[in-house]
Amino acid sequence: MRHLLQKLLDEGKQNFADNADFNFIAGWTVSIFPYEYGDYDDLEREGKQMLFKATQLDPDNEIYKMVYLGSITSDKEEYRQAEIKAASKVLKTFNGKGALNKYFKQVLYRLDKKAYR
Questions:
Q1: What is the C-alpha separation between 61 and 12, in angstroms, rounded?
Q2: In 15-48, which positions are buried (b, 16+ CB within 10 angstroms) versus exposed (e)?
Q3: How far apart are the C-alpha atoms of 1 and 62, rounded to whole Å?
Q4: Is 115 left (phi over 0), alpha (psi -120 to 50) or beta?
Q5: 3-state SS class at 59
Q6: Rounded to an integer, what distance in angstroms lies between the CA atom of residue 44 and that of residue 31?
Q7: What is the CA 78 to chain-centroid distance, rounded?
Q8: Confidence bin at 110 (pLDDT 50/70/90)
Q9: What is the pLDDT of residue 42?
Q10: So what's the pLDDT on residue 113?
Q11: Element (H, E) at 46
Q12: What's the Cα-to-Cα distance from 26 to each of 54, 76, 88, 103, rounded to whole Å?
């Protein structure tokens, strides 16, 4: 499984390196499950770099910014403001009835959670 994930990640980086959505999804997945892709420390770092790249490619996307700030040691107030700014976009973006919409809304809508506080 690890070999397949590494292959798909490499393929994605070759084909979608300048796509903010790819950098966000792949970066988030790699940063929370680096051990599934290979060397833990290197891939955790690469995941965070991909999250940062997503914020550079789409600087107006408040979800990307919030997740990136949550992945690094950032100022708690800056992160809290990012949570507040991202909340409406999370609800609007993931408003469907399916399991993936429910999942993303649950993990990305952070106003009601005490995470990172």
A1: 21
A2: eeeebbebbbbbbbbbbeebeebeeeeebbebbb
A3: 33
A4: beta
A5: coil
A6: 5
A7: 17
A8: confident
A9: 85
A10: 62
A11: helix 40-57
A12: 10, 25, 23, 16
Question: Of the candidates 28, 19, 32, which has an alpha carbon nearest to the alpha carbon of residue 66?
Answer: 28
- Whole-angstrom distance, CA of residue 78 vs CA of residue 9: 31
Q: What share of the chain is helix, strand, coil (3-state, %, to 5)?
A: 75, 0, 25
pLDDT at residue 46 is higher than 80: yes
Q: Distance of alpha carbon 3 from its chain centroid, rounded?
A: 22
Mean pLDDT of 4-24: 95
Burial of 11 (0-12, 13-18, 19+ CB in 10 A): exposed
Higher pLDDT, 41 or 98: 98
Q: Where are the domains of the chain?
A: 2-57, 75-108
Give the pLDDT confidence score for residue 74 in this predicted structure: 72
**Which tokens in the block code for residue 47?**
């995941």
Q: CB of 42 within 8 A of CB of 33?
A: no
**How many residues are given for the chain?**
117
